[in-house]
Write a structure and sequence with these properties.
- The chain is mainly alpha-helical and 274 residues long.
- It has 2 domains: 1-52, no CATH class; 59-271, MetI-like fold (Orthogonal Bundle).
- The chain is built from 14 helices and no strands.
- It has helices at residues 5-32, 36-41, 54-61, 65-96, 102-111, 121-130, 137-141, 148-160, 163-171, 176-187, 189-205, 208-213, 222-237, 239-271.
- Helix 3 (54-61) crosses helix 14 (239-271).
- Belongs to the binding-protein-dependent transport system permease family.
- Its main location: membrane.
- It is found in: Cell membrane.
- This is sn-glycerol-3-phosphate transport system permease protein UgpE.
């Protein structure tokens, strides 16, 4: 298909806008690869020459960064897996099972979207302190499993699936659990992928609750640990060290989004229909 002048103009504007949007990230990456001795005199330019990996080596050498990375991986994967299980089960129930009080319960779940997370930090802290569960993976994961947006997303997706597929399975004497596992879940892969990516991103970047429940450095997540380094090492290690920590924390998320971006678009498109 031949592109018109208007199409080319729009494409050029989008490319320009994308480049402008990427400039801060490129600048941070360039600073992380420059020697600190050079950054003292100037921080201009996005071409890291001469370049060095010393800032990243320092990041791994002077802190518990490998342990914080492990903590973030455990928390992010654990929270994502459990959220997918709970949200898909709840979404299927709200979309396909006619039980008493379904509408009222669904509205109650959605009401959780209106509660600021900061409003429940004090009771959560008190509860986990009374159970002596602070500084554990359980305390880092459990409070975030209540995901009203995930339930809403899965409910909308299951509603959009034709009911004839479920009725055909029922004619074959398939149980409700069998229908959910063999019919509905395979069809909901785009929505599950979208919810999984959003949950993983949230868990990886979460700062407020981990900084409340994790008081021992060994239990810091990557965001909390790198945040603590800014005060301790910013002046001694230099600007390149801080930029290296920013790249180290954000690179996995950028790769994850680039790899799964088509699933995100597909999931949001299909759940915004019916």
């Amino acid at each position: 298909m031949t592109r018109t002048f208007g199409d080319r103009l729009i494409l050029a504007l989008l490319i320009g806008a994308a480049f402008v949007w990427m400039m801060p990230m490129l600048w941070v990456l360039a600073l992380s690869l420059k020697p600190n001795a050079m950054l003292v005199s100037s921080t201009r330019g996005i071409v890291p020459w001469p370049h060095t990996l010393e800032n990243f080596a320092t990041l791994l050498r002077v802190s518990l960064t490998p342990r914080w990375l492990l903590n973030s991986v455990v928390v992010a994967f654990g929270m994502t897996a459990l959220t997918l299980v709970l949200s898909s089960l709840a979404g299927y129930a709200f979309a396909r099972i006619d039980f008493p009080g379904r509408r009222a319960v669904f509205l109650l779940v959605l009401a959780g979207l209106m509660v600021p997370e900061q409003a429940i930090f004090v009771p959560l802290h008190t509860m986990f302190a009374s159970w002596d569960l602070h500084n554990t993976y359980f305390s880092l994961i459990a409070p975030r499993l209540a995901a009203p947006m995930g339930v809403f997303l899965m409910t909308q997706f299951f509603k959009a699936i034709p009911s004839e597929l479920e009725e055909a399975a029922q004619l074959d004497n398939a149980s409700r659990l069998k229908i959910f596992w063999s019919v509905m879940l395979p069809l909901s892969r785009p929505a599950l992928t979208t919810l999984g990516i959003f949950t993983f991103l949230f868990a990886w970047n979460d700062f407020l609750w981990p900084v409340v429940t994790a008081t021992q450095p060994e239990m810091y997540t990557l965001s909390v640990g790198l945040g603590s380094l800014q005060g301790n090492f910013a002046m001694s290690e230099g600007l390149g060290f801080l930029m290296a920590s920013a790249v180290f924390a954000s690179a996995p998320m950028l790769v994850l989004y680039v790899v799964f971006q088509r699933y995100i678009v597909q999931g949001i498109t299909m759940t915004s229909g019916k």
